[in-house]
Amino acid sequence: MKPFIKYILLGALLLFGLSLPQESKAAEEINATQLVMEHTADAHDWHITTINGHAISIPLPVIIKTSQGWQCFMSSQMGPKLQSLGLTLKDGKIYEGSKRVLDISITKDVVQLWIVVILLIIIFVPCSRWYKGKKPSDGAPKGFVGLIEMLTMFIYDDIIKETIPEKHIHKYAPFLLTAFFFIFLSNIMGLIPIFPGGANLTGNIAITFFLALCTMLLVNLFGNKHYWKDIFWPDVPWWLKVPIPIIPVIELFGVFTKPFALMIRLFANIFGGHAVAISLTCVIFITFQKSIVTGASVGSISFLLMIFMDFLELLVAFIQAFVFTMLSSVFIGLAHQGEEEPQKKLA
Amino acid sequence: MPSFLTPDFGLLFWMLLAFLIVLGILAKFGFPAIINMVEERKKYIDQSLKSAYEANEKLANIQAESDNILKEARTRQSEILRDANQTRDQIISQAKQKASAEGARILDEARKQIDAEQEKARRENREQIVDLSVQIASKVLAKHLEEEDSQKEWVNQLLDKINADK
Prior knowledge:
Chain A is mainly alpha-helical. Chain A has helices at 3-19, 32-40, 78-85, 108-130, 143-163, 169-191, 205-221, 225-232, 246-290, 292-334; strands at 46-51, 54-58, 61-66, 69-74, 88-90, 93-96, 99-100, 102-103.
């Protein structure tokens, strides 16, 4: 069948579906907002699916500190356990009275975090073992080690070396490379819909907050004199600095907005990607509730859109990791300006 | 609805732990090996390129040098040949000169010797002739002088002869 005939048929189906009266009222309305929120938020258990109202999930340990001391139990017994401790559960968070308890449970995101960490270690440690006992004249590695080398050197040569002065590279390169691969792998794992992946790790503000905080600390703890002078006494006409320090205030504000933007950018992009993917999935179910025809026509478009979104998210997974690393590198490089010019400047 | 914009302490704690561990492991066992090797390989490749270039240049130099040597050898060869020719000619002409001089000298000597021999022979002949003539004369005189007439006749004859000679 020629493609355009397909499209015509699809359009006809769509129109037909719209013209049909609502046949049946669904037994259970789908709350798309709640679904999206549930899927993108952290949870105490790893929910896989629900069959006939019975949730199938991987139980995870809950570790909390209440006024009665440390408590540790599996999430599968959470309901009765919380009741016996006099705690309440609201929006997935545990409260004692109106105050939140100290909660360091191994949640879904924590498990995902450790999966990513273990994956990173089992990717990189064997790869670097390949180099043991090898001479430069033995040539470049092939296969997977070659891929890892290519990615590593891409970040190292094209971002880190371009922005950070030569003598500081060894200090910052491990963090920037780790951040890149951590974010990249987390993003990729987030795209896998079932168990070893699927948690919205880099779309969680705590994770991006930590990464941005690391960048902020590196920038401000190791920034040189020139960097601080640029903040408090920048090269602008004097009346912009005295008596009202307009520019210094803006610059000082910038110290915090830069990492804040880093945090929000990564969080929003990944969170948004997850939200869109789940929304598109919801569209299928919602339209099928209206009628089978509507469901089939709109759902098929939604399905195609989901495939497109997945490809787009693959791109975003890389771009966001790249952008985070590049901006962190640029900020760190700016804090070392005036010592030794890097070979080239990234815009 | 859970709040998305407040970082959760528990996750933050685990993130700190996990990230520091992975950073520590990768910074120690992961990236340095890869980066160092790639940098070394880069250096090695640069060096190889440089040495290849140098070797090429050296090769070109050697070729030029060998060409030069060959050329020089050729000029030397022709020079030596020319010298040899000259020497040969010289030796030959010298030998010729010497030979002709020697020949002349030998001829001269031979001539002198011949002259001397001739002189000697002539002298001996004369002496013999003188001897013979004296003997003959004495014998003839002895015979002639036995008779007076003949003596007188002979003296007259002699006187006539002398007169005729006058």
